[in-house]
Amino acid sequence: MRVVIESRDLHLFYGKKEALKGINLTINKGEITALIGPSGCGKSTFLRTLNRMNDLIPNVTITGNVLYNNENIYNPQTDIVELRKKIGMVFQQPNPFPFSVYENVVYGLKLEGKRPKEELDEIVETSLKDAAVWDDVKDKLDKSALALSGGQQQRVCIARVLAVKPEVILLDEPTSALDPVSSGKIENMLFELKHQYTMIIVTHNMQQASRISDRTAFFLDGKLIEFDKTKKIFLNPSEKKTEEYISGKFG
Ligand SMILES: Nc1ncnc2c1ncn2[C@@H]1O[C@H](COP(=O)(O)OP(=O)(O)OP(=O)(O)O)[C@@H](O)[C@H]1O
């Protein structure tokens, strides 16, 4: 199993508040890793450290390392645009641009420079198919993405990430704003994609974590309490706190 991302003694402070307290975690290639834990425990903060999204927040201090393919992404030389192409991100609220479906999907590719139309057409079709939304939008590629349903918008946002061929996809509660049918479609799609991409998903939905992830990390108050195979975490956790959280005793 190849390790793609590794955090080593990672601490993050918002001003004086320590939101991550020395996280050591490894992410294996081709797996889905779920991050679970009660509200405010640091899941999203940790996720954002993996492609330096926290750089955008003022007064953030980070110590420790995040290695991506053995390179520390916090090196000053890191090209952040390149990093975010390799490690893409999907947010809780679908955030399509106010452009057509087609323009949304090719957005990142166009930033890279001109490409022949046939090549773009092919990438749009493949990305939308992989994101399980092609049948919904194939006749509306030139229509505004904002006119789609929330679930369709989220799948178009996933297609936009897939189009630039990332190695890793970070998903921050990607289905929590959606109805159960749309959530189910996205869950199935993520499961199908896991052979092509490495994914890390923050979720409050325990069924979702147990259905789709290979490994689960349980966070509490900025600490990583337990990290193991998902089956082990859900059926026979080593830590009492994990068991209490999974069984709904708090959080
Ligand atoms: N931009 C910020 N500025 C200051 N504090 C922040 C900021 N973002 C998060 N925090 C704080 O850091 C801690 C961890 O927040 P984070 O959003 O990572 O938790 P979470 O586990 O993802 O929570 P949720 O499940 O509610 O999304 C919380 O105490 C939160 O209030």
From TrEMBL:
Q: Kindly give the Gene3D superfamilies that the UniProt entry links to this protein.
A: P-loop containing nucleotide triphosphate hydrolases
Query: Which UniProt key words apply to this protein?
Result: ATP-binding, Nucleotide-binding, Phosphate transport, Transport
PROSITE patterns, alphabetized: ABC_TRANSPORTER_1, ABC_TRANSPORTER_2
Gene source species: Vagococcus elongatus
A Pfam family recorded for this sequence: ABC_tran
Q: Does the keyword NADP apply?
A: no
- Highest taxon, organism lineage: Bacteria
Its GO CC terms are: membrane
Q: What is this protein called?
A: Phosphate ABC transporter ATP-binding protein
- The ABC transporter domain is annotated at 5-246
Which Gene Ontology molecular function entries are recorded, alphabetically? Answer: ATP binding; ATP hydrolysis activity; phosphate transmembrane transporter activity
Q: What Gene Ontology biological process does one annotation of this record name?
A: phosphate ion transmembrane transport
InterPro entries named in the record:
AAA+_ATPase, ABC_transporter-like_ATP-bd, ABC_transporter-like_CS, P-loop_NTPase, PstB-like
